[in-house]
Amino acid sequence: MNTTAPPSARNFAGTAAASSGLTRIEAAERLERFGLNLLPAPAASSFVLTFLRQFKSPLIYILLLAAAVSLLVSEAADAAFIGVVLLANGLIGAVQEHSASRAAAALRALEEPIATVIRDGQITQIEARFLVQGDLVLLEAGGKVPADMMLVEVNDLLCDESLLTGESMPVRKTISSPGSAIDDHSRPTASAGTLITRGRAKGLVIATGRSTGIGRIAAEIGKASVSQPPLMIRLARFSNIIAWTVGGVSLLLIAIGLMRGLAWNELFLMAVGLAVSAIPEGLPIAISVALAISMRRMAKKNVIVRRLPAVESLGSCTLIATDKTGTLTLNELTVTDIRLPDGTDLAIDASMDLDACVIRGAGIDPDIARQRAAKLLKAALLPNEGSLQEEGGRWRGVGDTVDVALLEAAHKGGLRADELSDAYPLIGRIAYEPDLKYAASLHRSGQGAHIFVKGSADVLIGMSDRMDAGHGPVSIDRDALLRQMAEMAGRGLRVLAFAEGAIDDGPEGPFGPHHLTDLVFLGICGMQDPVRPEVPQAIRDCHAAGVEVAMVTGDDPKTAAAIASEAGLIFQDDQITTGIEVQAAENAGASQLDDLTRRARIYARVAPSQKLAIVLSLARNGHFVAVTGDGVNDAPALKHAHVGVAMGRKGTDVAKESADIVVTDDNFASIVTGIREGRAAYGNIRKVILMLVATGGAEILLFMLAIPLGLPMPLLPVQLLWLNLVTNGIQDVALVAERPEGDELSRPPRRPGEPIFDRIMLRRILISTVVIGGGGFALFAWLLRQGYEVDAARNMLLLLFVMFENVQTLTSRSERRSVFSLAFFGNPLLLAAIVATQALHIAAMYVPWFRDTLEIAPISLMEWALMLLAASSILIATELDKWRLRRVIR
Ligand code: ADP
Ligand code: MG
User: Is the CB of 437 under 6 A from ligand 1?
Assistant: First the structure.
């Protein structure tokens, strides 16, 4: 393999020595000179633009028309008032939308890409934005290419360049004649932003940031379409229906009014006012705010939402198909046991002080024990892709956790990577890929070549025909080895096996899997990976919340079952299945597979490529599936599951890009927290919908009673606008800041197809409409009968409606629980909003311009108290319905 860059590339890269990379000082200088490796950020829309966008709605056009009509009929004050209301409304909307989109941008910034570079001859990981020209970068399957680079070393490399070329098939990159002097043009390159789907490579950075190919077209790519959450689409459709209904009702009322001899311009303004009150125009914004608030809450709990609809869908998932390593376990692997083929057991100190560890075996001389372990550990070290570096007296590993654990064990066994690689110069390697389940390397040794393999025991047993018995190879006893492996796996240890082989006269052709035959099996080792302490509780929470948990792992069934019971998963032995059975069922047809997945909850020895089939089958069985993943091969499952959850630490860039959600601490418990927040967000959205639709419906009912029954218009158009755009506009968003009620995880998930307007919601809307609309009408009619002037009656009615809205907001805080059982100060924002609307309305009674335009006037404290009493009727009605609901559920 070629390890030096051609001279011309060296020129291009300045002084970089192609094998040891730039020095830190050089890198810092270049960073100073050429700037960060960042793409131009898509311009965020300014506050002014967001504000102007608020006026792009048919409803606003109608209002503008209304203002024009008011001007025409010389009601200049009304026109000015409409203008003020529109400004206030636009401002409220813009502030909300702006903060929601800022929250989303802040979350995107958390997804900081990392690059593995060689600097000062050391492999280190840095944030990709600090890359400079001439940096030597290591690329690995699953990673995103962080800058434009010239490849100086490739191994089985496939790149997905669809982002740049539109070509969906991955492109293979090869260096035509390794080692020969060739010019730059025939060197393969990798472009920033493309994805490595297989293999490894080393590349020299030739362009960063804006100078890269993608940098030059970034402006266009940044314009990625913003897809709307399905919930929003459904609600937009619902708003349309309401708009048409309201239009019909308004026309009807205008007709009746004309017959009654009311003035056409007043009727027109009334229709506009009604339209504005009944159409829940605040809904889309309230929902984006609800989702943004949840996103922010989730981010604080290590759950990053990449696609907004996931907030909603996470709450309705009925099954989590989870990885084992790193998600249920800590992914802190330590090799503790070694078992040699002759049955000798060796134990390695689990201590993290690598230099002070001993290897022991019962009744074996410590030196002999170490020597025997070292023979096996050689195969743990040579095909290893990780690295172990000393930093301030402590050893630090870089790379795959399995690899790092093996390196640490090798170090404890006295093996030193540099000495060993001098003794066995590398000829070629087969890098670890999850679907291979092993990694192998070929080394020069004397006249011939030597093969070392590490990987899954069952695969390696298949490659071997002899086993090491201490005094030399004997013919293999596969059953005995499988028993040894099962015993170790049964203790919950992750088992890795080792084998070696020799090619006496050197290999023919490039090193490949066909060389891995007739090997000598060296033995197995067991690694501990403790279950995360918070996982058992999280799994209990899932069970309580009606969410099933399935484990999908590439590991051995015995290890999987042991870890699963440790994690608190409840399952029977017949619920354990393997990739082989899944494959067989798949071949027999979808219904066979569905029968299997209906029951199976532990899927062991599953190839990542099988995950998708399992997820799709679980979905066919009626589950709403959240699936976790980290590797390249998990991408299809992450994309097609209802909710794809990628691991933030262990996960590859490919997995993250395919996922809806990234869990930054890789922790299963965080997913459960996400479910809780998702359910809470959905609950809050329902609360706002109820609030907005119910008050709108009540106003329609008020007019539908008053106009045909021959009463004057109960509220003036400007009063309707005031009520809906100003006072309600302040309150509705406070409702979406409601904290989770705490019982989110003690309820079954809602059915995936369940409409927002379910029976509970429809009944509540009906109750509110009747109580508020009917109550308001009764008050109005009674006041007129008592001899009140129309103006005075409207004044009281408007106050009553503001209060109805206050109380409605308060009762909407919970769908099931009584307001009195909720913490009174649990949502300070909401209390503030209620107080603010009351204060605003009372102030308007005293401020001359508002008083005259709204045609309102101050009232006595007694009247105020009476109105409050009347408004509490909605509290009583709703509390009764909540009480009924709680009884039905029980
Ligand atoms: P899990 O589902 O627990 O994450 P993996 O798919 O990561 O399991 O691993 C499957 C099997 O592949 C392991 O049991 C092990 O035998 C093998 N394996 C994992 N990592 C490596 C590695 N770095 N090198 C060689 N073999 C590995
Ligand atoms: Mg894995």
Answer: yes
Residue 566 near residue 328, CB atoms below 8 Å? no
Model confidence pLDDT, tens digit, residues 118-143 = 999 888 889 999 999 999 999 998 88
DSSP label at residue 825: T
**Residue 273: half-sphere exposure toward Cβ, Cα within 13 Å:** 28
- Domains parsed from the chain with CATH numbers: 1-222 (2.70.150.10), 230-301+674-889 (1.20.1110.10), 313-329+546-666 (3.40.50.1000), 346-528 (3.40.1110.10)
Task: Work out the number of other CB atoms within 10 angstroms of the CB of residue 135.
Answer: 29
Among 11-20, 359-368, 389-398, 416-425, the range scoring the smallest mean pLDDT is 11-20
Cα–Cα distance measured from residue 502 to residue 520, given in angstroms and rounded to the nearest whole number? 9
Average pLDDT, the chain: 87
Give tens-digit pLDDT for 558-588. 999 999 999 999 999 999 999 999 999 999 9
Atom of ligand 1 nearest to the CA of 555: 14
Question: Which ligand is nearest to the Cα of residue 555, counting in written order?
Answer: 1
Record the tokens describing residue 111, joined without a space. Answer: 């997804």
Could you tell me if 495 and 457 are in contact, meaning their C-beta atoms sit under 8 angstroms apart?
A: yes
- pLDDT value for 556: 92
Q: Which amino acid is at 700?
A: I
pLDDT band at 314 (very low <50, low <70, confident <90, very high): confident
Helix axes 668-706, 775-785, angle to 10 degrees: 30
* CB 455 near ligand 1, within 6 Å: yes
Is the separation of the CB atoms in 455 and 437 below 8 Å? Answer: yes
Residues around the ion ligand 2 (C-beta < 5 A): 325
Q: Is residue 748's pLDDT more than 70?
A: yes
695: nearest Cα among 573, 563, 538, 807: 807
pLDDT (0 to 100) of residue 49:
86
Q: Is the CB of 553 under 6 A from ligand 1?
A: yes
What's the token pair of residue 545?
Answer: 């919340």
For residue 24, the Cα-to-chain-centroid distance in whole angstroms is: 35
Residues 6+ apart with CB under 8 A from 11: none
Model's pTM, two decimal places?
A: 0.81
Distance CA 470, CA 698 (A): 88
Band of pLDDT at residue 504, cut at 50, 70 and 90: confident
Whole-number Å distance between alpha carbons of 576 and 560: 9
Instruction: Please tell me the distance from the alpha carbon of residue 647 to that of residue 501, in angstroms, as a whole number.
Output: 36
Using the atom order of ligand 1, give the atom closest to the CA of residue 437.
12
Q: Is the CB of 323 under 6 A from ligand 1?
A: yes
Q: Are 494 and 566 in contact (CB under 8 A)?
A: no
For the Cβ of 555 lying below 6 angstroms from any atom of ligand 1, the answer is yes
pLDDT of residue 6: 36
Residue 184 annotated to the active site: no
* Cβ partners under 8 Å of residue 211, min gap 6: 148
Q: Which atom of ligand 1 is nearest to the CA of 556?
A: 14
Atom of ligand 1 nearest to the CA of 403: 23
Whether 250 contacts 271, CB under 8 Å:
yes
Are 289 and 732 contacting, i.e. CB atoms less than 8 angstroms apart? no
Kindly report the length of the chain: 890
pLDDT the model gives residue 12: 40
Residue pair 562/555 in contact by the 8 Å Cβ criterion: no
Nearest to 458 by CA among 405, 383, 550, 521: 521
- Tell me: the pLDDT tens digits for 657-690? 889 999 999 999 999 999 999 999 889 988 988 8
Q: Which of 330, 437, 605, 606 has most ligand 1 atoms within 8 Å of CB, for mutation?
A: 437
Ligand 1 pocket, mutate which of 402, 430, 552 (most atoms under 8 A from CB)? 402
According to the 3-state scheme, what is the secondary structure of 218-229? HHHHHCCCCCCC
